[in-house]
Amino acid sequence: MTLEDLLAREAIRDTMAKYNTAGDRLRIDDFVSCFTEDAVMESEHVPAERLFRYEGRAAIRAWQERWLAGEGGTHGATFVRHHLSTSKIDLAGPDSARARTYWVAWTDIGPDHAGYYLDTFRKVDGEWLIAHRRVRMDWEAEASLFRAAVPNSKA
């Protein structure tokens, strides 16, 4: 492993942390800046009514703006905190990488939902950005605040 490899992995971890921090705080500009212009963000392994797919920064921004507006009761919790744990990052080349990262989301009522991200990263103008994020959910609480939030924030 080279110093350049270590720096790339740390930059990717920083993008992941920025994504979660910005998302939890509904800081839309910071959230959207984690993605390439042509990024895809989609869910997998969830009930059909909660499947989503957003293509491009504009679509991802519009989705976050609906969350911020609270459309459909999308953010009734006092707080939401996504915590990242194990992250396996594989550099595929000087400007591309793949990652699998486990996460769990907590709210003021306790653990809410958990799963993992399957990501493709691309280095653009010196920044490691998410080119494709697949969000997979493994578990959710019976009273998860996000059961209604995701379908209600769709376009």
Automatic annotation (TrEMBL):
Limits of the SnoaL-like domain: 5-134
SUPFAM superfamilies tied to this protein: NTF2-like (SSF54427)
One Pfam family in the UniProt entry: SnoaL_4
Protein name per Swiss-Prot or TrEMBL: Nuclear transport factor 2 family protein
Source species of the chain: Novosphingobium album (ex Hu et al. 2023)
